[in-house]
Structure formats: C-alpha cells, structure tokens
Design a protein that fits this description.
The strands form 3 sheets. This protein has a 5-stranded mixed beta sheet with strand order 8-7-6-10-9. A 3-stranded antiparallel beta sheet has the order 1-2-3, with no helix packed on it. A hairpin with a 2-residue loop joins strand 2 and strand 3. It has 3 helices and 10 strands; from the N terminus they run ββββααββββαββ.
Length: 174
C-alpha cells in the first residue's frame, strides 16, 4: 500500500504500509544520473552476471567453485543497488531552483560562495541531495553540517559550522 499523505500531521511524506518515508530531495541532474545507473545495471550488468553464473555453474561442484561464489555475491550487490535506486526514484522530489522565486536566501540547489573567516580562503559549494553529493566536485549534501548551517541564510550572514576539529566560521559571500 503506497499513498500520499497530506496535511499538517505528515507533510512531505509518503505512507508505505505502516511506515512513513520522507520525500528524497534531488536535482533533475541527480535524478537523471540515477536513472542512467539503474538502466546500466539492468541492461548491462544483470545479463553479464547471469551469464557468469551460468558459466560457473557448468563447471560442476558449486561448493568449491570460487567463480560461482563471487558471481553470486556480485549478483546480490547488483540486485541490491537496483532496489536501492528504484526505491529512491519512487520517492524523489525534484527541486528545480530555477522555478523558485529568488529570495536571496540559501536553499536546496543553490550554489553558494563562502569565506572561511579563520583562513581567509574562499570556497564555493552547490547544495544537492545525498546521492549527488561529491566533495571533489564541490557538491555537498543538504543534510551535511555546512549545508544545514547555510540553508535559510543570505549573503553577508556569518554561520558557524560545528566540525570534528572545532567550530568554523564562514561568511556567505553570494
């Protein structure tokens, strides 16, 4: 049983059986990347691993067949990843920042330039969903400590981010 629930009791949640599952915020690019990944897993990886299992099975005794055991483990990983992605895509809430009236506040999907007040170094991050986050690409999860401190703030505001090595002060430049 899957149905949307509205009202103040459970805003933004979907009812699944007896549990509520939050919508998963994501950019359109993030959703597209997940769709490409799940298509690749279903169309390329799943058939490949089925062939490997069949080949390994044809070699005889499965109890001592390392190729068979490895292929079965890989099949479990692939099927688990497919289920994980499909579950996320079923609960995705695509947020297109271009369709939101600009308020000057930091929101999901925006790119924000920060000044570290201790080191005087600038850094620019884009706030994205969990599955899109990649620090190497300067994309941070909306649930990260930095993003949580930034959301709702505006240029000129100073935020304090609690980090493992202590608090870090940032000024929002833009």
């Amino acid at each position: 049983l899957v149905s949307s629930v509205t009202g103040a009791e459970h805003p933004g949640q979907t009812f699944i059986g007896r549990e509520f599952m939050d919508k998963i915020p994501m950019t359109a690019e993030g959703e597209q990347a997940l769709r490409i990944e799940v298509d690749h897993l279903k169309q390329i990886e799943r058939p490949r691993i089925i062939k490997e299992i069949a080949t390994a099975r044809a070699q005889g005794d499965l109890r001592e067949n390392a190729e068979y055991q490895y292929a079965k483990e890989e099949q479990g990983f692939i099927e688990g990843r497919i289920a994980d992605i499909e579950g996320k895509l079923n609960h995705v809430q695509i947020i297109d920042v271009k369709l939101i009236e600009p308020t000057g506040r930091v929101i999901f999907g925006t790119t924000v330039r920060l000044l570290n007040l201790d080191t005087e170094q600038e850094i620019t991050y884009k706030i994205v969903g969990d599955d899109e986050a990649d620090l190497k690409l300067l994309k941070i999860s909306v649930y990260s400590p930095i993003a949580r401190a930034l959301v709702g703030k505006a240029a000129g505001d100073v935020v304090i981010v609690k980090a493992p090595n202590g608090n870090i002060e940032y000024e929002i430049c833009s």
